[in-house]
Amino acid sequence: MNEPAHIGVAARQRIQQQAEQIQRSLDAIGAGRPGDAEPEMLRRSAVLQRRIGLPVQEAAREAPHSGAEKVWGKTIDFVDVAFLQRGAYAARAVARIVTRDGQGLGTGFMISPVLFLTNNHVIGSKADAADLLVEFDYERDLAGRPRVPTRFAFAPEACFLTNDQDDLDYTVLAVGGRLSGPGVLAGYSFLPISAARDKHQLGDHANIVQHPDGRMKEAVLRENQLVSRASTTLHYVADTEPGSSGSPVFNVLWQVIALHHWGSPHRDLLDQNGKQIAKTVNEGIRISAIVTDMNTRKSGLPAREREKITEAIAAGLDPQVVSSVEAAPAVAHDASLGASVDVASDGTATWTIPLRVSVQLGGYPARNGSPTPAQDVAPQPHADAAPSSTGEEARVQVDPDYGNRDGYQPDFLPGVAVPLPKPRGAAALRAVSVNTRPKAGRPKYELPYEHFSVVMHKKRRLACFTATNIDGRLAKSYDRSTGVIAAFHPGEEEADEAPEASELWFIDPRIPEEEQTPPALYAGQTAYDAQGAAIVDKRKADHANRIFQQGHLTRRQDPLWGPDDIVVRANADTFHVTNRSPQVGFFNMGKRKPGAEAAAHAGGTLYWRALEDFVLNNAVADQARVSVFTGPIFDDENDIPWDRGMPGMAGFKAPREYWKIVLRVEDGRLQATALSIDQTPLIDYVPEATLSEAALARVSFEKVKRYHVSIAELERRTALDFGAKVRGADTHPGGERREVASLSQLLSVPRAPGRRRR
Predict the structure, then answer these.
(1) Most buried of the four, 106, 389, 411, 703, by CB within 10 Å?
(2) What are the distances in angstroms from CA 655 to CA 50, 429, 562, 711?
(3) Hey, what domains does the chain have and what are their CATH numbers?
(4) What is the pLDDT of residues 5-44, one digit of tens each?
(5) Cβ of 549: how many Cβ atoms within 10 Å?
């Protein structure tokens, strides 16, 4: 079908914005070095690692020199014979969308045993779906004869999820009962969808299976090549006509990388010099963008529909799982040739025509979805988390493939390896949560994210600590309202952020949900002004400053460095509930805005956020690498009871004190500076905590103290072992804690004593 005009307009604009990248890619392809089209070395190494099985470090070394030969050999037109077998399997998931009188409207494909994916501009509503059918086997067999097609009704009442944004343009809906033909739904394959970043690189060939202009199913093999990538779209060029709306776009391994939705007329677009591009430029919606959007939007669906979406997303998390298609009567008969396909429980698909072919297929998950472990469910905004009224946080989308997170890197600092802190003693080790999907060679209690890691306390349902790598040379800023990414400059600290549950927070599926704190705990708080009256307008700063906020431990800005796609993922990762802890607004918020009353705000001098700004700004100014450990000090006797009567949260307490260790290398030596800060003087402003008479008085910010402490004292109070290297690098070893009146004092703290060389 013809795409709506607004989609074409928007696609052309995006393609023109990518003109320079497109031309770079075409130049690399024309020079016989298609691998050089990909500018991101991390993506190159990730693709190499997946495709030819290199270890991470070796893939990183090879990526800058990969071109095409490292990936596919000297002749990239030579592919493994499995290419055809995988393609045949993938093609069975693709179907034509038709009206009830048989007119073809578009293409789509199965993404689970019951769910079908196409464009929103093809099926935009439940009413549209009710008038349309899905038709499988509208194609020719090996003898060139038309197969007998099988038609099914759609079942939008069972599941329907759509997004009409021109840069997403997708619809997921359930397939219903068979209306005609010999096939059964279980006899057709489905295509796992994943948000993994190692599925493509620019310069790659792309394959498309489609019903162009409603014709019988066709495959365009190795004709298109990827030439540019935006946040939600991919662009690929060909010498042929545009593709069919709703078609799956595959990489060379037949993994879905995009949903085709628009193609330019041949030679219709211009490059940055105003010359015609002698190609057809196609645009597809990145499957990773669709998966993350599905993950966000599914929270608004009824439970049964949400479960179907969750199963479809979970199916794509493990690309190595072998298909175990239901052994029931999954037989599709072709009356014209006596052909049939039998799908056994071990994933073997057998086609019977005059010739019998059996293919054992890997890389495709279970047809019934049941073998997927519960812990593989992708992260989702918690049902109790309210979206931002400004729409800012709608852009936070978590990549559900946690296998691509490397977390805190011990060898990040130049010339020295600083291991992840570890729980000290058997009791402390038993108290931490266990990652059900640990990375090889890493502690089972570590939860790796992008550029940082978290270790959780089971009973307290909060992080014991986070460990973060900050690269001041590569630091970037990410505007949550626009999605714009730019170089970070010191002094760009964010102003006050939205209070309470205005942000979306995500449960981490790798540990039990009951070991994490639900966002609902923070919702609906009542704050009182200095006269003891309830603050009715929750938009006022006084309200935000006097409630427990969801304070980031690893600050949102700190892990934002490196390639843009890594920055986007790191930003989203900081919004896991594992990375937050209750902090009073005065303590957690940003700098006082010009003209704000000093009595109503800490003024950017005596609060936790100022310390975070200080660390990052100095790292950026010095173009340095810094590692930071941070967390609460758990004191079961003195911490603040704050379960708010919420079911399942009995006994929950908010920490009074927090600590931070800043690690950097100066003159070739490791330096470790430890600080602690206490929010107790501000606690009286939290009504659910201790509403004493002091709550009626204005807070004295001078009471909020920061202390330079020894590593040994922190180890004693946290039951953590920071390691001999950190203890040996302590800038305040063995001393009594000393108050830090100004953060600039940190620049003049004594250096750790040097060791004599023998």
Answers:
(1) 106
(2) 43, 20, 33, 20
(3) 5-40+76-85+195-290 (2.40.10.10), 392-747 (3.40.570.10)
(4) 788 888 888 887 888 888 888 888 778 777 777 777 666 6
(5) 26
